[in-house]
Amino acid sequence: MLSLKYLQENQEEAIKALKIKNFDATEIIGKIIDLDEKRKATQAEQDATQAEMNSLSKEIGMLFKSGKAEEANAAKAKTGELKNSIAELNSKQTSIVEELNNLLLQIPNIPHSSVPAGKGEEDNVIEKSVGEAPSLAPDAIPHWELAKKYNLIDFDLGVKITGAGFPLYRGKGAILQRALINFFLDENRKAGYEEVIPPLVVNEDSGYGTGQLPDKEGQMYHVTEDNLYLIPTAEVPVTNIYRDVILKGEDFPVKNTAYSACFRREAGSYGKDVRGLNRLHQFDKVEIVQLQHPEKSYEALEGMVNHVESIIQKLELPYRLLRLCGGDTSFTAALTFDFEVYSAAQDKWLEVSSVSNFESYQANRLKLRFKDKDMKKPQLAHTLNGSALALPRIVAALLENHQTPEGIKVPKALVPYTGFDMID
RNA sequence: GGAGAGAUGGCAGAGUGGUCGAAUGCGGUGGUCUUGAAAACCAUUGUACGGCAACGUACCGGGGGUUCGAAUCCCUCUCUCUCCGCCA
């Protein structure tokens, strides 16, 4: 969420910038600023009353100690009224703060000045397009058929065991998964990211910390018995490492990478987009997370984009880089770049990575701050994350783009990890 | 699953109803001394909100209660540890 202070100091600017995200903030920001005035006034009144109460209590203690029981009891009589008004002010304050918070949570992150206006996918800006779609044989087939042909993925068995969207990888298909995970982790480690293996299940606090709760509650699998949630991405447990943390300035940059299985209910997605590996309930992903000094977060974003790009290049896949427009940038991001890989057999672009700078939007809710020696008060850090990379669509693109009449060619960089150079 | 113990500042650890935002030790920061460092000594060292400031208010795992007054007493939840059981 945005900080109150920012909104107070930059009201006009914020309203203008949020229009890029097609969000009219005029009314809500006005309400917030009014409410905060109320909050301050009520707080001041409450503090003063409490101060009076405190000193009266102290006095009573002294009186009792010095044996003046009568005076003490007289003073006691006065406390009842104070007590009532404190309770009253307190409940008033609680509801003001609650309302204020609710409103704050409804405002999306301010988009970066370079975010283009636009309504949806079609307005995203293609930053670059690299590599050419391979000229496939006329009988080229989509990955779900390739997966069957070479016995790599058994979707039917997944349905039998669990349900749709939970594929079973086998043989070279399973090895390919493991190879990709290790390849990605190694690449990330070489780029300075510390590897972590986080829990795959998180508690409510963590869900709120990264903003999955309360708004996206329905998208996560919920273990009601223990009130825990299956993670939709490693971003959740990894970013929550830093919840309620105050870093030192010299700790930056903090760089973590994690492989995890990801679980998404994907309630409401049906149809041809869910064919094969395009959209799953359980999938594998290697994530990168960075915490940065506010002055350096955009430099870091660029570094992350370049890093992800280098991995895709090593996989020998044709890709393009998109700068998301306001309408397609997520609620919490300030600037997002998407990588899409071309699937020749499906004749469509598949999103394989999304790299975003959240600036202090996530950090504010997480209470992730840093403090330099010369700083009086802790300041919010910037958080960034990206997929490096998500497996299913990479696998789909690898199978489809590298298919030959003899079999599927494994990219050179991956061979040391798979132990074979051809799937046949 | 059963029985018990516990949760206090960056860490360790005192504090069982008022003078406690909290002793003490360690750590951190600044300084004195030193050619430099170490040691020693001195000072300082939580977060949030309000206020130009002085200062005020809140926070001793979370929530609720008793009381004029709660870190301290009561209830409840969560978590951690120990033992037993079960088990990868």
Please provide a written account of the structure.
The chain has helices spanning 4-9, 11-19, 26-65, 69-105, 143-149, 155-161, 172-190, 204-209, 235-240, 297-314, 361-366, 391-401, 415-418; strands spanning 125-130, 153-154, 168-169, 194-196, 201-202, 222-223, 228-230, 246-248, 254-263, 282-292, 319-323, 335-343, 348-359, 369-371, 379-380, 382-390, 403-404, 407-409, 422-423. With 424 residues, it is of the alpha+beta class. It has an eight-stranded mixed β-sheet with strand order 1-11-12-13-16-10-9-4. A three-stranded antiparallel β-sheet has the order 5-7-6. Strand 12 (335-343) and strand 13 form a beta hairpin. The radius of gyration is 27 Å and the shape is elongated. The relative contact order is 0.14. The structure holds one RNA strand of 88 nucleotides.
Summarize the helices and strands and which ones pair or pack.
Blueprint: H1 4-9, H2 11-19, H3 26-65, H4 69-105, E1 125-130, H5 143-149, E2 153-154, H6 155-161, E3 168-169, H7 172-190, E4 194-196, E5 201-202, H8 204-209, E6 222-223, E7 228-230, H9 235-240, E8 246-248, E9 254-263, E10 282-292, H10 297-314, E11 319-323, E12 335-343, E13 348-359, H11 361-366, E14 369-371, E15 379-380, E16 382-390, H12 391-401, E17 403-404, E18 407-409, H13 415-418, E19 422-423
Parallel strand pairs: 4-9, 8-14
Antiparallel strand pairs: 1-11, 2-3, 5-7, 6-7, 9-10, 10-16, 11-12, 12-13, 13-16, 14-15, 17-18, 18-19
This protein binds one RNA strand of 88 nucleotides through α3 and α4.
